[in-house]
Amino acid sequence: MRWLRHRYQPCSPLGKDGRRVSGSAEHIELSRQAAAEGMVLLKNKNSILPLENGKRIVLLGKASEEYIKGGGGSGDVTVSYVRNFYDGLKIKESENKVQVYNGLHNFYADYVRRQHEEGKEPAMTVEPELSREQWVSAACFSDTAVICLCRFSGEGWDRRCALEKEFSMDGCETWEGEDALRKMGRQVFPKGDFYLSEEEENLIRTSEKYFKHRIILLNIGGIMDSSWFYEDDSIEAVLLAWQGGMEGGLAAADILCADVNPSGKLTDTFAKRLEDYPSTEGFHDSSFYVEYKEDIYVGYRYFETIPGKRERVNYPFGYGLSYTKFDIRVLQEEILQDRFICYVSVKNTGSISGKEVIQLYYSAPAGRLGKPAKELAAFEKTKLLMPCKEEVVKLEFPLEQMASYDDTGKICKSAYIMEKGQYHFYIGTSVEDVEELKTVYYLKEDWVTERLAERLKPRKLSKRMLADGSYETLECSEYEEIKRPAVFEHPSELEGIAPEVRYEKRQTLQERFYPKYKELADVAQGGISMEEFIEGLNTEELVWLLGGQPCTGVANTFGIGNNKKHGIPSVMTADGPAGLRILPECGIYTTAWPCATMLACTWNRELVRKVGAAGAKEVKENNIGIWLTPGMNIHRSPLCGRNFEYYSEDPVVAGEIGAAMVQGIQSQNIAATPKHFAANNKETNRKHSDSRLSERAAREIYLKGFEIVVKKADPWMIMTSYNMINGTYASENKELLSDILRGEWGFHGTVTTDWWTRAEHYREVKAGNDIKMANGYPEQLLENLEQGRLNILEVKQCAKRVLELILKLE
Ligand code: BGC
């Protein structure tokens, strides 16, 4: 009966001694730890880092003051403060660890403040120029500069690759590729975002004249160009500090001063140029569709496999430096009951404590289906190892994980198959830095590990990439566009009809006292079954349960449930992923955690579990039951505006880290909501865009992370995405929701739409999408029931799952 608290919304602090946990010192400290552990040291020539004790440094760049704690949109968090790089290093100065030049502090701080007052978005400000006097005075203080750069992106728009604005259906800006524009003879605008802006280039160029040593701090939420420092020997160190939440500036200072030894590893490949990612070509071809022509060759699967592409990588997947060294030895490897198992000893042979991430990869025979040259199978992170200390980590995975999906029937249609031939295994500390193991697994015959049925067949994907970089054509079937009622052709009319407005209409349907009716509590107490309870709800009550309900308390993303007559509480939802999001006007501060990509770069499940549990406590304390996190989409392209909310280019990392997050959240009896299911890898026109991909790419890449989360962590809710998948809206997609998610993976939670989808409510119900947020269309459901397009059993099924979710909460 713990769920009953949602009826009363108690304002009780959940911390020790009656203190609030939301935004508490303890949570903020955890946020700082997670941030320090997710930072990736990309470069450290001459071991310039950590800074010598008492080192004098000059902070250059407006980003020393303008710290971006996370991305924008629903993933933003209202916090009591944000510590920038300058603040963080000044704390270290007070501990006598560094000496920070103050001469530019006011200049940058005032500049940033003025720009924001003029209405510039964070990090959309232009890098200011320094005068000669400023350069000279700074250089007199120290020969070492720490150059800070930041980037911002958010929901509903994609990042700029260059360079000319257009408007999409969402009213958001899109940008044409530079080459395309040049070919068209069009003007090319200044650089920025993925690349350095001209002003930043100028800062970096000029800094070389004045400073012997230069260290770069990157406060970014997604991949940016790395060639300018990778290729420049005079830039000695680069710390990928990500968007580290409210204590990101201090966490970076922890690393610079060796209070924390970096142990973060990339969860994405940093290639030489944007054009090196196969997803770049065609990203902006249309705002109405994206063709996933690179198929399963996403991220390192592409760079490792396609001939000639490995040379295009600056920093590989899994890579990250440490201040210490580790000796890695494989102690034992075996195949036992269809599992590959190995024990690896990791010994710290340096002079400072540190952690290491051990990665296990496999390569399957190319066979007839074609395979990535390497795929991540498992990973483990050591605990903090003191110098000379050793830990043995165990890595294991089921052999079946190496199967590939045959979607066109080259061997056995619609099945996962391990092709005959040799399977090799590798242990290492990045996808490139690996050692092959002795064990070779040999299959004499093809092994069909799982037979499934054809789902999500592509209908308009003309071709897909093969392992040699060539393409095969796919058989495509044209399909009939669904005729939708006029209101759905003009979707803006649907947006923003708040549940409050609909709820008012509904008041007339309800009486005030209902003594004779069964209550949800009767189900919870075992007095009646859920089925009996549902039989006691009339059709109107049932359809009302399938849509969002008005906000109460501090919620701003609406709720579910809300039927007083039957004692169904109104349970609120809130965003995620970077923290519990409450609007500033509520006057409540919560903890801003590091952005999702950064959490993944910790490769530390236990830490992520702790973050999940701490975040969920804040959710509960604020009387919210459903947290709209984690974001599970794949980093298909560096240009996706929401990559900061997602974990990785690799589904195993995304799935494992996502599962840890869900376990942490649900340990507090708060529902986690992995989102956006699925193939939501572009923000421009996201409510209409059609993601065109093969069934194999869907299953092996874009759905795989969700599959791992469902199977490992049993999330109580899943959020479908706005986009279409091969011509069908994700939320209307029966194959996705009923056949794959529930049928194949055994998901028994509740499915919600993303907020204000353009899909039709009754089709969503039919597909098994239980609840339409932020607001349902009960009238439409009733009409469709009457006309026989919708069946009452379908409605009851969804209602049941909504109610079951409520009973799981606290
Ligand atoms: C976003 C979701 C978010 C929801 C509620 C949508 O626009 O895509 O990620 O959870 O809004 O704020």
What does this structure look like?
This protein is an alpha/beta fold and 810 residues long. Among the domains are: 21-291, Rossmann fold, CATH 3.40.50; 300-473, Sandwich (Immunoglobulin-like), CATH 2.60.40. It is built from 24 helices and 32 strands. Strands 1-8-7-4-2-3 form a 6-stranded mixed beta sheet, with helices on both faces. A 4-stranded mixed beta sheet has the order 10-28-30-31, with no helix packed on it. Helix 2 packs across helix 9 and helix 17 (605-621) crosses helix 18 (651-666). The longest helix is centred in the C-terminal third of the chain and has 17 residues, at 605-621. The radius of gyration is 27 Å and the shape is globular. Bound molecules: beta-D-glucopyranose (BGC). Residues 74, 155, 557, 575, 628, 675, 754-755 line the site of beta-D-glucopyranose (BGC).
Oligomerization status of the protein chains: single chain
Proportion in helices: 25-40%
**Ligand inventory:** beta-D-glucopyranose
Order of the strands making up the biggest sheet? 1-8-7-4-2-3
Number of strands: 32
Protein topology:
Layout (H helix, E strand, L loop, with lengths): L4 H4 L16 H14 L1 E5 L10 E6 L24 H10 L3 E3 L4 H13 L14 H10 L2 E7 L14 E3 L5 E3 L2 H6 L14 H13 L2 E7 L7 H4 L6 E4 L7 H9 L13 E2 L17 E3 L8 H6 L7 E3 L10 E11 L2 E10 L8 E7 L11 E7 L8 E9 L5 E3 L8 E4 L2 E8 L5 E10 L3 E5 L11 E3 L5 E3 L12 H4 L9 H9 L12 H5 L5 H6 L3 H7 L13 E5 L4 E8 L20 H6 L3 H17 L4 E3 L22 H16 L4 E2 L17 E3 L2 H8 L1 H10 L3 E3 L4 E2 L2 E2 L4 H11 L5 E3 L8 H7 L10 H9 L5 H17 L2
Parallel strand pairs: 2-3, 2-4, 4-7, 7-8, 10-28, 25-26, 26-27, 28-30, 29-32
Antiparallel strand pairs: 1-8, 5-6, 9-11, 12-13, 13-16, 14-15, 14-19, 17-18, 18-21, 19-20, 22-23, 24-25, 30-31
Helix pairs in contact: 2-9, 2-17, 3-9, 15-23, 15-24, 17-18, 18-20
